[in-house]
Amino acid sequence: MRFMYIVTSSQPPRPPTPALMEAMGKLAEREIKAGRMIDTGGLLPVAMGAQVRITDGKLNVIDGPFVETKEMIGGYAIFELRSKEEAVAAAVEFMQLHKEHMPGWDGTCEVRPFATPGVDGACQVDVSALA
């Protein structure tokens, strides 16, 4: 199963410590070599981004920063793992690195399975409804 980890924090953005970067680099190298980690990355500040919204049937593009942002997505990772339990265990290990190397930082690592069309009912279209 493929999982995405989404790391968020409600604290003001600050760069990871060198110790955290080194620890995450070692973890990523191990997981990539094992064939479990597919992709990972940090995200630049919301001031550099944009949102494309549909509100009341109208499409709008809004440049960052976004006033209503309460939690910032700081990064993500994509893994190929056997189960949700394995995905949660790996996320606990990842967040433990933050606890050890960035004291005082509060955040969340959300673990979300990818939808697999035809396997878990995701993204399926009822063609009889289209007729």
TrEMBL record:
It comes from the Bacteria. Coiled coil: none annotated. Residues 1-91 form the YCII-related domain. InterPro entries: Dimeric_a/b-barrel (IPR011008), YCII (IPR005545). Belongs to the YciI family. This is YCII-related domain-containing protein.
